Amino acid sequence: MTENNGTTAKISVREVCGGAPLTGTNGIKVHKLIVESWLASKTVEVDFAKVLPTPTFLDEAIGRLIGQFTKAAIVEKLKITGLSPADKKILNGIVVNRYHALANAEKYKNRPATILTLKPKPR
Asked: Residue 41 domain-assigned?
């Protein structure tokens, strides 16, 4: 399932999720393991060998890290292995969208709320 030697934590998605469909629920399960391993290891390796993750799974497992950890920490510490080229493209899109959403949330965080008042048209 997971292996941690203090330096590198290895998470096998296949072992964690078995033959179950890789849905968002399983993605949350893997995400929790990543976060737990993150605190105890220098590197976290997530192995996608012999599995077919859905975009929802990838978003829940990996995409949720955006905003929890800095970009520099993620690039330095997270290693993804066994992911097909097509799934890498999907994951890249998820990560880019998460960063854009985070940037927009920060941009509008301190903006005062605007309340629109609609007036009826004169007859």
From this structure: yes
The amino acid occupying position 67 is G
The total number of residues shown for the chain amounts to 123
62, 91 contact by CB (below 8 A): yes
Report yes or no on 67 lying in a domain.
yes
67 conformational bin, left if phi > 0, alpha if psi -120 to 50, beta if neither: left
Cα 47 from Cα 12, distance rounded (Å): 5
Q: Which residue has the tokens 């941009």?
A: 107
Q: Domain count for the chain, please give it.
A: 1
Q: What is the tens place of the pLDDT at every residue in 49-108? A: 999 999 999 999 999 999 899 999 999 999 999 999 999 999 999 999 999 998 887 776
Buried b (16+ CB within 10 A) or exposed e, 61-82: bbbbbbeebeeeebeebbebee
Residue 116 has pLDDT above 80, yes or no: no
The answer as to whether 95 is a domain residue is no
Q: Is the pTM of this model over 0.90?
A: no
